[in-house]
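Dear Dr. L.,

I hope this message finds you well. Following up on our conversation about the binding site, I have prepared a predicted three-dimensional model of the protein together with guanosine-5'-monophosphate. For your records, I am including the exact sequence and ligand specification that went into the calculation, followed by the structure tokens. Please feel free to forward this to your student if that is useful.
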Amino acid sequence: MHIESDIKLGFKDVLFRPKRSTLKSRSEVDIRRTFKFHHAKTEWTGVPVIAANMDTVGTFEMAEEFLKHEMLVAIHKHYSVEQWQQWLATQPEAIYNHIMVSTGTSEYEFDKLCTLLNAEPRLRFICIDVANGYQQAFVEFVAKVRATFPQHVIMAGNVVTGEMVEELILNGADIVKVGIGPGSVCTTRVKTGVGYPQLSAVIECADAAHGMGGQIVSDGGCSCAGDVSKAFGGGADFVMIGGMFAGHDESGGERVEIDGKTMVKFYGMSSDTAMNKHNGGVAKYRASEGKTVLLPYRGPVEETILDVLGGVRSTCTYVGAAKLKELTKRTTFIRVQEQENRIFG
Ligand code: 5GP
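The resulting structure of the complex is given below.
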């Protein structure tokens, strides 16, 4: 047994130290980034915030809205190829730069991925998502997808340590998905005791990925716009968000009236709810590692998007970063034992 005693930090453990700056307004900040992908060898420019591939977040409707803000949506894997084709037929060319096709690692899912990408060759992003990215079979799957789609941008995860980031990049990932346990409807840490505070995971994994010319996405754990900025400040190239984008018109999902209030069901993708819906129940050998919650219905997602992007722009002005690209360099985190004043809730 071994104990690592360095302190590992979550978003709640730090704040940005403000820095003298010549920026006059947050409207001067450019939050778009351009990335060149290590394996795909292509470039992408946009706002590097991604809606999670959860079935009540990563929807086609969300993608239509995100396109307006040049952001990305990892479309969940439960749409059929026919649904994809029908929807794509109604979309502008630009949509292909702002959507990712999600897949698991089963043979069925690989065949479906091949069918879809061969039918729609303009789709350029693939998101390979498993709860535990440490398994050899997962690494082999990433290598197989890379061999089959040499020019597609592959995002794969989830992992939380530098050596596994390197392993995934060596095996074909362009972007590594980082996060085990921080999600708003995730119960992995409770069920298994496994996890890694998200900000430290981001800092360590970004360092490993950047050393190899790859990128990372910080996946999960953002509960406010400030957390999104902290993920970028820690070195994340992209930030993936689930819960903050749930409960809106574009999220879909079942609605219920409770005491005259409209609530929306939101659940983890390995919760009982998701497994009953998509897989015919929870397999006996595994515990569900996600919960189901009811969120107040929040109307159109646009306001939430503006809130998140406005927050990130504002962080940049506080530390004097004219571009999001400069944020990490301009970041000094201070460790804190308090966040916001909760006197009024
Ligand atoms: P959030 O932004 O809601 O904090 O986190 C979203 C992320 O939580 C997703 O992108 C995904 O990585 C993770 N997640 C979604 N569903 C589940 C689940 O059922 N179990 C676990 N362990 N993680 C989940």
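In brief: The longest strand covers residues 153-159.

With kind regards,
A. P.
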